[in-house]
Design a protein that fits this description.
Layout: H1 3-7, E1 17-18, E2 26-27, E3 30-31, E4 42-43, E5 54-56, H2 63-67, E6 80-83, H3 87-100, E7 104-107, E8 122-125, E9 132-135, E10 140-144, H4 149-156, H5 173-178, H6 187-190, E11 197-203, E12 209-212, H7 218-227, E13 233-240, E14 246-255, H8 259-269, E15 277-285, E16 300-308, H9 312-323, E17 330-331, E18 334-337, H10 342-345, E19 354-361, H11 366-376, E20 386-391, E21 413-420, H12 426-439, H13 460-464, H14 469-482
Parallel strand pairs: 6-8, 7-8
Antiparallel strand pairs: 1-4, 2-3, 3-5, 5-6, 9-10, 10-13, 11-12, 11-13, 14-16, 14-17, 14-18, 15-16, 15-20, 19-21, 20-21
Helix pairs in contact: 8-11, 11-12
Bound molecules: flavin-adenine dinucleotide (FAD).
Length: 497
């Protein structure tokens, strides 16, 4: 039997790189340890000795599940997946990548694909690292790299505590937090999730597992919070929780024909609201599909999203003027347990092919509202699934005690467009998303929010817009210090200086 017959892949072309010392052979597409590496010449990419998790090859059992993610626009196709069970596995994967100078990427949920991940790469899957510990007395949570927000909330909410989650609980805590972590429920009150990280366990390109804090390595602590996977692979983080167990909020859905009136009222209203009021408005096109809720099916709508964490009667009084703008199709704003927050946005559960664009807006003027409605309202040339403006400011505008790379804190709003469509419609959808950003350019700060940047916004140049020049230069110097060969480049990349 030839080598190819016995293992189903040609070992010599797994990564086309030399065999690693102390490594092993390929068996049934799953790499196992304990056998000698192929002698001489280019060898297989081998499972590191001591791996507790699995090492998976393309086409073999377990591989497809390991690389699968939320956004189908781009699925990773690495030469090897390390399905890590613990921090030591992540360390072994990084050391293997460093030894071979193979790029290494990380996947938790696949909510934010960036650059393509091909056969020359190693991918660490953190899907089996989901442990969460809540310390109610200290009001902290410690999570492993693959934990989702739903896992945190399952443990914290029964104790009257929550973290600064995003719009959906299916997003990974670590990826979300390292990109900033803009909570549409609690962000304006408490700031970015990254602002409340206490410590980060991180494997850097030299294979070291470090616990990084603002005290022991302020520069690395600065960069990782806002720089995502550019400085290493995180194996766990500890962060603050907040005593919130209810909110007054939800979504009020208006007919698309009321978009202009509502948005004009909204832009005036946001100037007046306290920090405990987080909100956004989304122009949406609901598919004409049996799975859509009957009153909304096939309609252009406007969704006003509200989360108020003060007294209920104050929240009611604050929302009243917006409620009075028009007769809503649905009004779901009410006092609710915090666990009901996912219904505010009703994000898709996935997997979906989602194309996205983003920008930061300095302000929402009358002209900006007109442009937004022209670009994404009911009369727009293409029915984009959703275009949202989310109100920033409040605590989001302030740097925390230990400053982070989460930048552009003076922006007034995020602009985020997303469309879900089949292959034939992709060019039209992309053109429509580009048009939204182009029409809104007069109010754009020129910056971007990293967590909202898509595969179409993953060039080095586009990523640099997530930071002011002086922060970007600082991050590139940090990158030179901790990852001079840019091992961690399969991401929204910041190249070394
Ligand atoms: C439906 C939806 C709703 C969202 N809502 C919000 C929101 O309200 N607010 C907000 O701020 N963002 C939001 N996001 C964006 C989200 O925060 C990013 O997509 C985030 O990167 C998701 O992280 P993940 O680990 O789940 O995804 P993945 O695609 O698995 O990872 C994305 C990237 O995160 C980094 N990363 C993940 N794990 C690690 C690790 N262990 N170590 C180092 N880096 C790591 C890597 O750079 C990786 O490429 C939303 C996204 C979607 C699709």
């Amino acid at each position: 039997m030839t080598e190819q017959d016995s293992i189903g892949v040609d070992r010599r072309h797994v990564l086309g790189l030399g065999a690693a010392a102390g490594a092993t052979a390929v068996l049934g597409g799953v790499l196992t340890t304990g056998e000698p590496a192929q002698a001489g010449g280019p060898g297989p990419l081998c499972a590191p000795a001591g791996l507790k998790g699995r090492a998976l090859l393309p086409g073999r059992p377990g591989y497809d599940a390991a690389v699968a993610g939320f956004n189908l626009v781009q699925t990773p196709a690495p030469g090897l997946v390390i399905a890590a069970e613990n921090a030591r596995d992540v360390q072994l994967a990084v050391r293997l990548a460093a030894q071979r100078r193979a790029p290494i990427a990380v996947l938790a949920t696949g909510h934010q694909p960036s650059v393509p991940i091909g056969r020359d790469a190693i991918l660490v899957s953190t899907k089996n690292m989901r442990e969460v510990t809540v310390d109610a007395r200290r009001r902290t949570a410690r999570v492993e790299a693959g934990a989702l927000w739903t896992h945190v909330l399952d443990r914290s909410l029964p104790q009257g505590l929550t973290g600064l989650n995003g719009s959906t609980p299916t997003v990974g805590v670590v990826g979300y937090t390292l990109g900033g972590g803009l909570s549409p429920t609690l962000g304006r009150r408490y700031g970015y999730a990254a602002d409340h990280v206490r410590s980060i366990d991180l494997v850097t390109a030299d294979g070291r597992l470090r616990t990084v804090t603002g005290a022991n390595d302020p520069e690395l602590f600065f960069g990782v919070r806002g720089g995502k996977s550019n400085f290493g692979l995180v194996t766990g983080i500890e962060f603050d929780l907040f005593p919130v167990s209810t909110f007054y909020g939800g979504a009020i859905i208006f007919d698309g024909k009321d978009a202009q009136r509502l948005l004009h009222a909204y832009r005036r209203w946001v100037r007046t609201v306290p920090e405990a009021m987080s909100s956004s408005v989304a122009l949406m096109n609901i598919p004409d599909d049996p799975s859509s809720p009957p009153p909304l099916r096939g309609k252009a709508i406007v969704s006003l999203r509200i989360c108020w964490t003060g007294r209920q009667d104050t929240g009611e009084a604050l929302v009243r003027p917006l409620r009075a703008i028009a007769t809503p199709l649905l009004d779901m704003v009410t006092q609710q347990p915090y666990s009901a927050f996912p219904a505010i946005h009703s994000d898709p559960a996935g997997p979906v092919p989602a194309y996205e664009r983003t920008a930061l807006l300095s302000e929402l003027t009358g002209d900006a509202v007109e442009a937004l409605v022209a670009a994404a309202g009911p009369g727009a040339p293409y029915p984009i699934t959703m275009v949202e403006v989310r109100h920033l400011g409040g605590a989001l505008a302030r740097q925390p005690r230990h400053a982070s790379a989460v930048a552009h804190r003076d922006a007034g709003f995020t602009l985020f467009g997303a469309g879900v469509t089949g292959p034939a419609e992709v060019p039209a959808l992309r053109a429509a998303l580009d048009r939204v950003v182009r029409l809104m350019r007069p109010w754009s700060t020129g910056g971007s929010y990293l967590n909202f940047m898509s595969v179409d916004e993953a060039s080095t140049r586009a990523v640099s817009h997530a930071y002011p020049d002086h922060v970007y230069r600082r991050l590139r110097r940090l990158k030179r210090r901790v990852d001079p060969y840019n091992l961690f480049r399969l991401n929204h990349n910041i190249p070394p200086a």
